[in-house]
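Re: the pair you flagged

First of the two:
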Amino acid sequence: MNALTKEGWTITDSPLSLKYEGKDLFIDLGAEKIINAERGSAKIAVAIKTFAGRSDMKDLHLAVGQYVVYEQVLRRLEPERTLYLAVSRPIYEGIFKVAVGALILEERITRLLVFDTDAEVVIQWIS
């Protein structure tokens, strides 16, 4: 994802492969960024979602469910890594700024990374 590298992140894994009790999970990518000498580096995992299915709500159910599973496994295996769900600006505006998607953010169920697909830049980090 060029948007992350433009912000100084180094893609370390594509995909980020995890194994938990005999089950394999693959998160789209892992990245690391040096913060400073005292604080060290920040590590993230990013699940990129296009919401290209026939139903926005079904896509939301699948994305949030997958996010919850990934987050729980990351807490056990790589607790220093923060998980983000990456969506394009149109998905953010059409799903996460209204109704159920807004509720998901309000309740802090997911963290979002909103990006512009044309400019390949991160627009917003929502923790």
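Second of the two:
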Amino acid sequence: MLVCKFPLDEFNAALCSIVLMLLLGFVDDVLDVRWRYKIVMSLLGTIPLVISYQGSTSVLLPLPLRNMYGLGTSLDLGLFFLVALSLICVFCTNSINILAGVNGLEAGQTLVIALSIAVHSFIQISLGQDIPQHEVSLVLIVPFVSVTFALLQHNWFPSRVFVGDSFTYFAGMVLVVTSIAGHFTKTLMLFFIPQLINFVLSIPQLAPPWIPFSIPCPRHRVPKWDPKRDLLTNSGNLTLLNAMLYVFGDMHERSLTIALLIFQVVCSMLGFAVRYYFAGMVFERVN
């Protein structure tokens, strides 16, 4: 009798979470949901995925911590690990949405991260590591790469198709569920370096008004367009887009998108270097 090693339960849970986040994106496009409700709904969307999670809840400890404090090779976080998975899901589904505003950026950054995930899964399968889990990741990510590439062709400047929140939430959830199903969430965060930078920059504007360091947040935080020069200028909002314009000066919208995507590619290459080279300096083995 043939035994199927494909983790069907995790695959079905991943599809369920993706559909829920796609629904949230559609509702947000139609009703313009406030941020506090988006966060709650994002957490609800992670429930199927977290409940069906069958991987380890332990984290590998770096060698310096083991030598300094006499700890074991790993630390079992139990329920806290599942909570962390939920928070990572919330971050990824919203991070694509807040690093947006210029033609081609949402689809472009998503495509680069998705290709990075696919390459990582292919490498792991070639090394014989967690083959069934990475097969789930590939089953999810390869079709997604194809449709995102097609979307990018129509979303590139000048855009003929606008993605809206439906795509950004859908895309963020697809990316994170592939990592959870493949058990490589730490590696995924290396591919999200630009989104992490954008989130850190945005904290003062995203923080509630009762926080001392909070800054008023306008409805749209995109750069300003100078119609006379047909260039984008820094609008003063705390985003990676405006930071790029502040450092390198005013740019055409197409040029700004290309610069950000080049930065995304460089960060993915850095992520691979950390994952497959530098991690070996502080870990005996890499999960």
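Residues 131-155 form the longest helix (25 residues).

-B.
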